[in-house]
Write a structure and sequence with these properties.
With 147 residues, the protein is an alpha+beta fold. It is 20% helix and 40% strand. It has three helices and eight strands, in the order βββββαβββαα. It has a four-stranded mixed beta sheet with strand order 5-1-7-6. Belongs to the Nudix hydrolase family. NudJ subfamily. It holds the Pfam family NUDIX. Its EC number is 3.6.1.-. GO terms for molecular function: nucleoside diphosphate phosphatase activity; ribonucleoside triphosphate phosphatase activity; thiamine diphosphate phosphatase activity.
Length: 147
């Protein structure tokens, strides 16, 4: 069997001191996550994060920089995730748009609310991304090359 990580993308959006998250149904119950998902075949990382954000929140996402690349192995499942987290802006909200299966709603939360809800996070990547964003971490989009 050939091992490969699950390649995912995530959108980090902060407006007026609040971060855009999604509340979603998972096999572990209702969890919080950034708008995020798997990269589909033939799709660039940027195309994937724009698509996933629209599907999960009904907002248009405009990537501005790369926050970081996160490697995480789920402790109870034999799955490794390689997450590319992008910082950007969200606009053009379409409140009548239906959201992806499993997504309950989009929610805006302060860093304090995110820290306090850590037990409900989909993975440790949720808080790590917020903390790295608050610390000022970011990289230009041109560090990613799509050939």
């Amino acid at each position: 069997m050939i091992w490969k990580p699950h390649t995912t993308v995530a959108a980090i959006v902060e407006q007026d001191g609040r971060f855009l998250l999604v509340e979603e149904e998972t096999t572990d119950g209702i969890r919080l996550n950034q708008p995020a998902g798997h990269v589909e075949n033939g799709e660039s990382l940027l195309e994937a994060v724009i698509r996933e954000t629209r599907e999960e929140t009904a907002y248009r996402f405009k990537p501005q920089s790369l926050l970081g690349i996160y490697h995480w192995r789920h402790p109870l499942k034999d799955i490794t995730y390689l997450r590319f987290a992008f910082i950007g802006l969200a606009d053009d909200h379409q409140p009548d748009q239906s959201l992806d299966d499993g997504i309950i709603r989009a929610v805006w939360m302060t860093p304090e609310e995110i820290r306090a809800s850590q037990a409900r996070h989909r993975s440790p990547q949720v808080l790590a991304c917020v903390e790295h964003y608050l610390a000022g971490q970011h990289f230009p989009l041109h560090v990613i090359t799509h050939l």
